[in-house]
């Protein structure tokens, strides 16, 4: 429907799709075949105008379409083996949990609205540190058009699923005739002491770090890793990077700590934003300032 001129899209969504779905639920085989044939005939008879529409249109993808796309990917690849995502050491830095697509859209939408300087349309590079099965990486590329979208994940099972989701993502982009932005996963790798990943981090415009379950020392190591970020970079975290009532010391300044250069906004999500609770969660939009 996304790739059809409006008149045809209306015909498909108001006539053919309802006939297709009601035939499935009522077990009406003839009705089902009829709906499929009607659809095929519509595409066949209008091939030239559909191609012209796809080529000429500059239309952007709707949020609904992007979320459906991501959901299909997830249902096909992750859902059948999701029990494996629970295989981590409890209360460790490797606890698994996901930000849901609606929440990621809200966060990115907020960054987009903040002003010209930080408009996502002009942003190039996104990276998720601890990217799990890669959901946010695909969403950044698909829905927000980041030219380069990276993920790094250390654990084996989420990495396997992320790699499989990437193959499916590329196939689906081809199927829908979508231009793919560059997506790259650093699977089964740590973001610490990883020079290639560090280069990508330093070039990022938006970094996501779901540090909800990370402990104090781990968060401090992450802060150290951010010392070369460029002004304007936005870091989204679920726990604060800058400790409460923080005052920078001369020692930290000498070490080039980023803490004194972060402008922090504490935000609260809508309910149902994350996979581990329905309760709203806090999140932090940290923006790197000039020295
Ligand atoms: C809470 S999950 C977040 C998944 C995804 N980013 C999301 O928000 O939907 C945190 C992930 O960080 C990963 N992780 C922890 N330490 C890591 C490290 N040193 N390098 C890469 N990934 C790491 C964990 O294995 C886990 O999958």
Automatic annotation (TrEMBL):
GO CC terms of this entry: nucleus
Subcellular location: Nucleus
The keyword S-adenosyl-L-methionine is assigned to this record: yes
Reactions listed under catalytic activity: L-lysyl(79)-[histone H3] + 3 S-adenosyl-L-methionine = N(6),N(6),N(6)-trimethyl-L-lysyl(79)-[histone H3] + 3 S-adenosyl-L-homocysteine + 3 H(+)
One example GO MF annotation: histone H3K79 trimethyltransferase activity
Stored InterPro entries: DOT1_dom, H3-K79_meTrfase, SAM-dependent_MTases_sf
GO biological process annotation, one example: DNA repair
Enzyme class: transferase
Swiss-Prot/TrEMBL keywords: Chromatin regulator, Methyltransferase, Nucleus, S-adenosyl-L-methionine, Transferase
PROSITE patterns noted in UniProt: DOT1
One matching Pfam family: DOT1
Activity regulation summary: Ubiquitination of histone H2B to form H2BK123ub1 is required for efficient DOT1 methyltransferase activity on histone H3.
Record family assignment: Belongs to the class I-like SAM-binding methyltransferase superfamily. DOT1 family.
Misc: In contrast to other lysine histone methyltransferases, it does not contain a SET domain, suggesting the existence of another mechanism for methylation of lysine residues of histones.
Family annotation (PANTHER family): HISTONE H3 METHYLTRANSFERASE, HISTONE-LYSINE N-METHYLTRANSFERASE, H3 LYSINE-79 SPECIFIC
Task of the protein: Histone methyltransferase that specifically trimethylates histone H3 to form H3K79me3. This methylation is required for telomere silencing and for the pachytene checkpoint during the meiotic cell cycle by allowing the recruitment of RAD9 to double strand breaks. Nucleosomes are preferred as substrate compared to free histone.
Protein name as annotated: Histone-lysine N-methyltransferase, H3 lysine-79 specific
Lineage: Eukaryota, Fungi, Dikarya, Ascomycota, Saccharomycotina
């Amino acid at each position: 429907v996304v790739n059809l001129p409006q008149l045809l899209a209306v015909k498909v969504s108001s006539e053919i799709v309802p006939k297709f779905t009601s035939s499935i639920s009522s077990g009406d085989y003839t009705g089902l075949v009829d709906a499929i044939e009607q659809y095929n005939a519509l595409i066949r008879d209008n091939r030239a105008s559909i191609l012209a529409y796809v080529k000429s249109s500059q239309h952007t993808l709707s949020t609904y379409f992007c979320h459906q796309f991501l959901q299909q990917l997830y249902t096909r690849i992750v859902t059948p083996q999701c029990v494996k995502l629970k295989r981590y050491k409890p209360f460790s830095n490797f606890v698994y949990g996901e930000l849901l697509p609606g929440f990621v859209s809200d966060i990115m939408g907020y960054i987009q609205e903040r002003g010209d300087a930080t408009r996502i349309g002009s942003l190039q590079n996104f990276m998720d540190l601890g990217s799990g099965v890669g959901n946010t990486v695909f969403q950044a590329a698909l829905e927000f058009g980041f030219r380069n979208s990276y993920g790094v994940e250390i654990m084996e099972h989420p990495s396997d699923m992320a790699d499989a989701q990437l193959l499916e993502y590329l196939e689906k982009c081809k199927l829908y005739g979508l231009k793919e932005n560059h997506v790259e996963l650093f699977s089964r790798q740590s973001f610490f002491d990883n020079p290639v990943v560090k280069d990508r981090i330093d070039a990022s415009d938006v970094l996501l770090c779901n540090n909800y379950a990370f402990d104090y020392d781990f968060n401090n190591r992450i802060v150290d890793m951010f010392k070369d970020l460029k002004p304007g970079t936005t870091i989204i975290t679920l726990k604060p990077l800058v400790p409460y009532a923080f005052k920078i010391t001369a020692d930290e300044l000498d070490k080039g700590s980023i803490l004194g250069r972060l402008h922090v906004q504490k935000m609260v999500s809508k309910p149902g934003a994350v996979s581990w609770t329905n309760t709203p969660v806090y999140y932090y939009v940290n923006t790197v300032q000039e020295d």
